[in-house]
Inverse folding.
């Protein structure tokens, strides 16, 4: 670049926008940290299977009613686990959307 050359200023690209983006990034990181600590649960089979998932989609618990194991129907148990787990993941995604959605809407474009 030539000595003394100054790049032209782009409208809307001043320090204010960078500050806003940095603040937004911090807010998103804080929301993600909160999500990692929040949990949602879902049940299947009338409550005989319960799955708990964090807001960042990590499974933290699977609870089975001992009565369910007496019949030992593996296929039914697999179906109940899948149903409860997928339902818990859906709830976790909804929680994340509620928490992060307002932040994403605040991007200054």
């Amino acid at each position: 670049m030539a000595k003394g050359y100054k790049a032209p200023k782009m409208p809307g690209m001043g320090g204010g926008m960078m500050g806003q983006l940095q603040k937004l990034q911090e807010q998103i990181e804080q929301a993600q940290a909160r999500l990692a600590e929040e949990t949602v649960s879902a049940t299947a089979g009338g409550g005989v299977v319960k799955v708990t998932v964090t807001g960042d989609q990590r499974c933290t618990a699977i609870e089975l009613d001992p009565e369910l194991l007496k019949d030992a129907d593996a296929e039914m148990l697999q179906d109940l686990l899948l149903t409860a787990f997928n339902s818990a993941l859906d709830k976790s995604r909804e929680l994340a959307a509620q928490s992060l959605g307002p932040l994403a809407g605040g991007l200054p474009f």
About this structure: Strands lie at 39-44, 49-54, 59-64. Residues 99 and 105 are 11 Å apart (CA to CA).
